UniProtKB/TrEMBL annotation:
Homotetramer. It comes from Coffea arabica. InterPro entries: Amidohydro-rel (IPR006680), Hydantoinase/dihydroPyrase (IPR011778), Metal-dep_hydrolase_composite (IPR011059), Metal_Hydrolase (IPR032466), Metallo-dep_Hydrolases_sf (IPR050378). The modification N6-carboxylysine is found at residue 205. GO terms for cellular component: cytosol. Residues 103-492 form the Amidohydrolase-related domain. This is dihydropyrimidinase. The lineage of its organism: Eukaryota, Viridiplantae, Streptophyta, Embryophyta, Tracheophyta. PROSITE patterns: PUA. It holds the Pfam family Amidohydro_1. Its cofactor is Zn(2+). Carbamylation allows a single lysine to coordinate two divalent metal cations.
Length: 542
């Protein structure tokens, strides 16, 4: 019996016990489905059991945290880091990994992914990587947790959450959720509260673009910002002026520009800067922290820099495509090549990426994501005659850790401690799960990578682990290779081989009121006391 049939059957049962029993069965059925599908991964749980050691000693590596690095051993017991110090002694039953000359770092946390997401139309434009293939790819590239964006179902947050809980049952690493807000009414406001207080969501995303699909207006953004503030949840924005983008798209079509280059030309950096500035000002007006996702241009970055200089709590997230690529691919004469680079905001002209890298290195932008949102070439071909129909999104969940190392650490732009900060620790702090995640400290989850700085990596759609048939980083060869990935105390990536455990990933609840909210109420008090109003006026004598 297939996975889907079992789920349909499960829905017919009302008793909780029956459903729980069926869920156990469906997990088993699903793992066989994956094995039978010959996905190319060694899926632990395909009829076999997880026999790997629960105790591991990583010996002699340079252990790197965001605040400090030292040569030390790391002892892992039952999925948790038990000790970090030089010369730890253990018995014969412990598996030992020699990490001499290598960096032992917290696994990457990707703050921005879209797995199994329906987007820009019908079912057929659901992203090609689901919670299994996307996470398997992540693990092969040294990322051990990600935060995915839940899309509401017909505007309902609870239905959206339920659907994503289902999708995520295939997980092989830990994950969290952001929630997207696409409409506003009392029900949405109430559901936001439930998401924060009961479901472990502490961030809500608002699209200022994709007119007619998920775009919201300023009135809704203001309501959302107020609600986020009261819940201690972080407001996130996709910052492009959607009305102006719509106009830009019409202009391109009128000029006869229908190919992928029209995508970039229709939504220039100034539209990203305008929406970034607007969102920052509105968040400043409400006095609540703001997170700008996928900062792609110098123009948007400078708006963030300006606000931060004035003391506003704004976080800027560049994505790896924006850091290391430029827009030349969109002009490629081969549609399949050009279309794979279509994402929003667009990958920009040469110069933007380097400036964004500098902003990351100076702390103007705080953490690096991917916006992993993969469509294969058949799906991209929906827009063969009209760039507006090309599903937006590129890959990156497997490549981010390598590309950031190669372009920023190997080139000397940032330190190894900064690397850990921008790929892992800062994300854990912002989404309030530090030091469970994002650190190599006693008590932290044993999500660890071992990177060899003297080894090299190569990117190709022939060898990557995403289900996509294309890769925007095709042919990239760079320095620094993630040789081992450990997730929850299990080695899942070693000798270029994945041994993933289907269904083993856990949902990580993220509490509200992260550090960005500290002292917010004091600014409100001083604002109120600065008003010198209402003025007590004498009534004029009649
Ligand atoms: O093109 C993109 N970025 N696709 C994913 C959805 C989004 O805007 O984040
Ligand atoms: Zn976006
Ligand atoms: Zn995105």
């Amino acid at each position: 019996m297939g996975f889907v049939n079992l789920l349909t059957m499960a829905k017919r049962f009302s008793g909780i016990i029956a459903i729980l029993l069926l869920l156990r069965l469906t997990t088993a059925a699903a793992s066989h489905e994956f094995c039978d599908a010959g996905m190319g991964y060694n899926v632990v749980g395909c009829g076999g059991s997880d026999s790997s050691s629960r105790r591991i000693l990583i010996k002699g590596g340079t252990v790197v945290n965001a605040h400090h690095q030292e040569v030390a051993d790391v002892y892992i017991d039952d999925g948790i880091i038990a000790d970090v110090k030089p010369n730890i002694k253990v018995g014969d039953e412990v598996a030992v990994i020699d990490a001499t000359g290598k960096f032992v770092m917290p696994g990457g946390i990707d703050p921005h992914t879209h797995l199994e997401m329906e987007f820009m139309g019908t079912d057929s434009t659901e992203t090609i990587d689901d919670f299994f293939s996307g996470q398997a790819a992540a693990l092969a590239g040294g990322t051990t947790m990600h935060i995915d964006f839940v899309m509401p179902v017909n505007g309902s947050l609870s239905l959206g959450f339920k659907a994503y809980v289902e999708k995520a049952k295939k997980s092989c690493m830990d994950y969290g959720f952001h929630m997207t807000i696409t409409k506003w009414d009392d029900t949405v406001a109430r559901e936001m509260e439930i998401m924060v207080k009961e479901k472990g969501i502490n961030s809500f995303k608002f699209f200022l673009a994709y007119k007619g699909i998920v775009m919201i207006n300023d009135e809704l953004l203001l309501e959302g910002l107020k609600k986020c503030k009261s819940l201690g949840a972080l407001a996130m924005v996709h910052a492009e002026n959607g009305d102006a983008v719509f106009e830009g798209q019409k202009r391109m079509i009128e000029l006869g520009i229908t190919g992928p280059e029209g995508h970039a030309l229709s939504r220039p950096p100034l539209l990203e800067a305008e929406a970034t500035a607007r969102a920052i000002r509105l968040a400043g007006f409400i006095n609540t922290p703001l997170y700008i996702v996928h900062v792609m241009s110098i123009d948007a970055m400078e708006e963030i820099a300006k606000a931060r200089k004035l003391g506003q709590r704004v976080v800027g997230e560049p994505v790896v495509s924006g850091l290391v690529l430029n827009d030349s691919g969109l002009w490629d004469p081969d549609f399949n090549i050009a279309a794979k680079f279509v994402m929003s905001p667009p990958i920009r002209a040469p110069g933007h990426g380097r400036a964004l890298q500098a902003a990351v290195s100076m702390g103007v932008l705080q953490l690096v994501g991917t916006d992993h949102c993969t469509f294969n070439s058949t799906q991209k071909a929906f827009g063969i005659d009209d760039f507006r129909k090309i599903p937006n999104g590129v890959n990156g969940i497997e490549e981010r850790m390598h590309l950031v190392w190669d372009t920023m650490v190997a080139s000397g732009k940032i330190s190894v401690t900064d690397y850990v900060r921008i790929t892992s620790t800062e994300c854990a702090r912002i989404f309030n799960i530090y030091p469970k995640k994002g650190a190599i400290l006693p008590g932290s989850d044993a999500d660890i990578i071992i990177l060899n700085p003297n080894s090299s990596f190569q990117i190709s759609s022939n060898s990557h682990h995403s289900r996509s048939d294309t890769n925007v980083y095709e042919g990239w060869i760079g320095k620094g290779k993630v040789e081992i990935t450990i997730v929850g105390g299990r080695i899942v990536w070693e000798n270029n081989e994945l041994k993933v455990n289907l269904g083993s990933g856990k949902y990580i609840k993220m509490p509200p009121f992260n550090y960005l909210f500290d002292g917010i109420e004091k600014a409100d008090v001083s604002y109120i006391s600065s008003l010198r109003a209402p003025v007590n006026r004498f009534k004029a004598m009649q």
